[in-house]
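User: For my dataset I need records formatted as: sequence, then structure tokens, nothing else. Please produce one.
Assistant:
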Amino acid sequence: MLLSIPKCAIIVAGGLGTRMQIDIPKQFLILKGKPLLNYSLEAFYQYDSSIKLVVVLSQSFHQTWKDMCTKFNISIPHCLCDSGSTRFLSSKNGLNMLHEFPDETLIAVHDAARPFIDINLISRGFELAAIKKTAVAVVDLKDSIREFRNGISIAKDRNYFKIVQTPQIFQYKILKSAFENNKDFNVSDDATVVEMNKNEIFHFLGDYQNIKITTKEDLINFQ
């Protein structure tokens, strides 16, 4: 069944990397000889060479990325669209690029800042989404956690919490309806948008290596 379902991936790369304290967006950092953004493109393309790939990137950096594709011989087919002022709007812009696809299409949304995604992780997500129509990567917490509120610290049971990752994969019909009906542009998680539209969220096993590059320290083990 999965082989017959069209698949797309929206790679969200609209961030400016301000927390990295660097002069260029972090998706353009060179990691082991390749731009960080290219790792996500490669993973999804290796999983399924027929997948439709959309990179959501600030319009002001489109030419920069095109130049990098030439410099690093990046030939994976993909299209570019402009990012929005929030994660919500960036995902919505990417989704709007897929209007020609049928309702049963499976759409993966992935952070470009998670370059260490692999084919097995992608496969697990699409397999679950083909059955349940929603699939979100999560991993267990390893550390103890506490809630800090109003100057008070309260211990919490980590067994009731998960770390949410991407990819997050949804049936196109569900994802489109969720973004059309939600007006809270500050929602930073696609699964939350879908959940707010009264859809159940199903989870699959993520990967501890699938970290999000946010600060310079995140790159120490991968130089």
